[in-house]
Specification:
homodimer; 355 residues; alpha/beta; 434 Repressor (Amino-terminal Domain); Rossmann fold; 3 domains; six-stranded parallel beta sheet; elongated; DNA-binding
DNA sequence: TTAGCCTGCGCGAACGTTCGCGCAAAATGC
DNA sequence: GCATTTTGCGCGAACGTTCGCGCAGGCTAA
């Protein structure tokens, strides 16, 4: 019989799944006894438990999660919502979360929002429908009100970006990061510093604020024609370099305020054959594999992704275990970035102009 | 009442979910009528459907997926099992699948196997328990028999790697890829070609076979001391370069047979300050962002990941729709790689020795 | 000896949804 | 004007699991 079933399976015929009912019939026990035996209930004798275990394995029983969830249990599903999993940062986040949750009996599902508020909302609806146990989200720029409402109904943690009306959040000290970058350049003697960054996300605004603060505190004037703000995309980075070159403005250094912008700027500088750091210095945002390869090695802000992701995971697990009310004593963690100094920054050789 | 509930939600109190029962009570209809109205049953009047729709939105109803699944429906969950999501290839796969499935009403879940057969099996167990609709898997090196058995019970597609006993598979023409790489070098005049590659996976063995074939067909002798086989890891790549250097063997070119090995070899060549392509030529495996940045630009085999992933997604969706027996007319697609020629390969300058 | 407790197990309801069946009333066919 | 179909909706079972409750039989304590 069992052999027959197996050979059927091998032919690709989808079999009806084995349930505890089948085990009960096989052993002449009641359904509830089998159920309790499988969940290691104290009121079941060791002998019965062993018999049930054996039969379960022999028949290839796998518990039906759906039924368990419907009884009011948790789905043991935690969902990660990110704009784009191809990003080295978000894929790192996914990896850490997946392995971290697995050891606690949770499973990670993945939702791509593409930074589209509508898609984000649609994804959240599906997750609510699936009764996920928890959510880790990197919110889009302008989340829908409904998205925030749904989030508020279940355990969740926000990563990097933040919806102000919600509680728990693990992020970076965006403002201080750029302050550090600017101070590094200022310390080298730079005065004409260009800033190419994002102004669509709150995080981007905080970084730009950091740039202004550092310049002001150093007593330097900010040349608005050297400040290029746009979306945090590769394309904007390349275009910004073009503008900087065409404007023939005297910049001796560049700070980039977003990961993809850094990539675009670096790519374009290479393409235009600009000598770094001789002609111009550059401090990037975000460290990874390619920053070591690029040109002379890119001085850049290393983001503590592993740390905040791990913190995120632990905190969410804590929330799930204690199942306390969200919103009470929200956990807000702001982690510092680290400036990794390579060879893309040096003292300005002269008042040479980037052209 | 509704306002009260909403404010409670805002305080983070987890509410009991709204069900069709609640809607039925609200409208004075039966449960089944509400159910049918929501699924657009033809036997329900347009007017009733509109009333139900309105009430559902007003109360914030979200269908309980678990209940639907338990009735025998599909979970609309498709799972991706990969060794490591941080890989640029697998994260690309995840992105394509997630967006592709979403438009068809499916949702992607992510499982990291870490190339560990036991972890892979454990993940598969969970997926069976969750009654996922389908699976896309990059199998580990030596999958457990139980893993294959479980896979055979549900719609699935294998990607890149392959368990021979299972049907559908989308992969690369690994053997021909390395043949192309070797022929490129042979065409440039190279005779002493080193091969650094994997021999633990079937795909790795196929690539090595390609190397032997190309050399033999060109009438060249294979120097076994220039053939370094090991696990497809970065570390092995760096170590292999060390061995090659210490052996003081006359190799004028290197072919790498795995993505991470390529990374390790490239990193080590840079570190040892080996002049490429003057001292030695190199053809890498797998194209991506850093291959353009590295040194003079890496000549490499571009893998058609987008194509095979898209094919994979479409085929699985086809299987899910037609729900035909798996195993009948299995779909096996072997896609060719493309040699992208950059500046890491040139004619051998002399009989110069790598040291 | 009797009252109370512990052990080991069964009964049956509940979770939210879907769907076959049934049953009126309205609409149609002749 | 009667028979038949169509329309619109309700009843109740089923999916697989969990869990409160109940009920024997054996045990301990007074």
């Amino acid at each position: 019989m069992l052999l027959l079933l197996q050979s059927l399976a091998h032919l690709g015929i989808h079999l009806p799944m084995i349930t505890i009912k089948d085990i009960a019939r096989e052993l002449g026990l009641s359904i509830s006894t089998v159920g309790r035996a499988l969940t290691d209930h104290p009121r079941i004798s060791r002998e019965t438990k062993e018999r049930v275990q054996e039969a379960a394995e022999r028949l290839g029983y796998v518990a039906n999660t759906a039924a368990r969830v419907m009884r009011g249990g948790s789905s043991h599903l935690i969902s990660l919502l990110v704009p784009d999993i191809r990003s080295e940062f978000y894929s790192m986040v996914a990896h850490i979360l997946s392995t971290g949750f697995e050891s606690e009996g949770y499973h990670l599902t993945l939702s791509i929002t593409d930074d589209d508020p509508n898609r984000e909302m649609q994804q959240m609806r599906e997750l609510m429908s699936a009764r996920v146990a928890g959510v880790v989200i990197v919110p889009s720029a302008n989340p829908r009100r409904e998205t925030a409402e749904m989030l508020s109904k279940i355990p969740h943690v926000q990563l990097l970006r933040r919806i102000a009306s919600l509680g728990d959040w693990f992020g970076l000290d965006d403002e201080q990061a750029i302050v550090d970058a600017a101070n590094h350049l200022i310390g080298l003697g730079h005065k004409k510093i260009a800033y190419i960054g994002d102004n669509t996300f709150p995080t981007g605004k905080a970084r730009y604020k950091g740039f202004r603060r550092a310049m002001t505190e150093a007593g330097l004037k900010i040349d608005d024609s050297l400040v290029l703000l746009g979306p945090p995309e590769l394309k904007f980075g390349t275009e910004a370099v073009h503008k900087l070159v065409q404007g023939r403005k005297p910049a001796t250094a560049i700070i980039t305020g977003a990961v993809l912008v850094t990539l675009g700027v670096a790519e374009q500088l290479s393409k235009l054959n600009v000598k770094v750091p001789n002609q111009i210095s550059i401090v990037g945002f975000g460290d990874g594999p390619w920053q070591r390869w690029w040109g002379p090695g890119l001085t850049t802000l290393k983001l503590p992704i592993e740390e905040i992701t791990t913190g995120c995971a632990l905190w969410l697990l804590h929330r799930l275990k204690t199942s306390r009310q969200q919103g009470k004593d929200p956990h807000i963690a702001v982690s510092p970035t680290t400036l990794v100094i390579r060879n893309s920054t040096a003292a300005p050789k002269s008042t040479r102009v980037l052209r």
